Amino acid sequence: LGLSTLAGGAKAETLEPNSWDDVTSYCNFYEFGTGKGDPAAYAGQMTTEPWSVRIDGMVDRPGAYDFQQILSEMTIEERIYRFRCVEAWSMVVPWNGFELADLLNMAGVQEGAKYVAFETLYRPSEMPGTAYRVLDWPYREGLRLDEAMHPLTLMATGIFGKPLPNQNGAPLRLVVPWKYGFKSIKSVVRITVTDQEPPTSWNMANAREYGFYSNVNPKVDHPRWSQATERRIGGGLFAGREPTLMFNGYEKEVASLYEGMDLAKHF
Amino acid sequence: MDGLNQLLRRVPVWSVYLLGLLPVPGLFFLGLTGGLGVEPVKALEHEYGELALKLLVAVLAVTPLRRYAGLNLMRFRRALGVLSFIYVLCHLLVWLLLDVQIPSQILADILKRPYITIGMAAFVLLLPLAVTSNNASLRRLGPRWRILHRLTYPAIALGALHYVMLVKGFQIEPLAYLAVILTLLALRLPAIRRKATT
Hints:
The complex is a heterodimer. Chain A is an alpha+beta fold. Chain A has eight helices and twelve strands. In chain A, strands 3, 4, 7, 8, 9, 11 and 12 form a seven-stranded mixed β-sheet that branches. In chain A, strands 2-1-10-5-6 form a five-stranded mixed β-sheet. Chain A is globular and about 50 Å long. The relative contact order of chain A is 0.19. By secondary structure, chain B is mostly helical. In chain B, 82% of the residues lie in helices and 0% in strands. Chain B has twelve helices and no strands. Chain B is globular and about 50 Å long. The interface between A and B is medium-sized, with 32 and 28 residues.
């Protein structure tokens, strides 16, 4: 699957991005508080320079990779993706970033690896939300290796052509457009390649509600929210709902990853 | 406290209604004009819901405040109760008309999602209370009116539970509401009441 296919599939229909305000003022980043406005209000105090990402586990070249060094080796491109939160709201975000596969190849994935685990920065002195055990910090996420290597899977470093604002996960975050937003872990400090399915934060907090896969699926209801429809942020008081698309509209690109799997069971 | 009570006696009840009702159009206007952020539907739903809960806490606080602090707010209790119902109704209407909108999904949500089932149950319990919050009903029902209006207790407890169940993860604010409400309810238990007054 090359970039040309991406352009044909994921980008064929013209997605109208949300505004800068929509994307930067309405965030879930519980390390800074559980309110949607908390990240924009409090994430400014997070130090993002210097920043390094520890890449370890089943890789040929483990170590602490400096963020600037990573940037210098990667090709940054723009990807306009739908972003669908498990809370049944959605946005369209113009990301800038590089494919996760390129970063993993830089570190050299070893034979036998099956999963990739991610960790968010955990720095209580700069993260007022971590004073409460809303979740078991640090925030953790994971992907199957083939999901991680998929060309749609992005490590974002910016939005709207500008560096990522802190509340959106500066300086480096994951974007997996066919999964619920919480899979797209922010402010990544560690990437571990492993052969075990890694524990993930929301699954640890409530396994009945949040599965490891968490693919956007209008036919599999979340116990808390119907996933059949969503409300696009920015439409105002009378916007109403839109139908949610299978795999968030990326079915053509990713359905083959899950062939033969019961998606109601592996939700 | 006597001075304060005398002062309160001069406050007309209609002013509580007026002040209490202002946020209904006020918040709606904010939602229309961007004052509630980029997702005004959820924000409005939450603002109305939280105000309803705050007013219900106020209703529940009237008796303990009089008993333990000597502060007499009894004259305003009906107004606080009626206002809390109005905010519950606004909260429900935003959910029905602006949030979910789709009738089949509304029904499915009420049946399948416990926090919504519980919220609806609290609303149903409040309905007869709102309808009988007038002097004519009070006269007609006599002593049964007091018994009927004890439905406030389970309704408030369900309202608090609705909030606790609705949030993701372990969050403090809804648990704080639940703690305050359970405390206010516990103060009404005969054993505690006797202990506090002797």
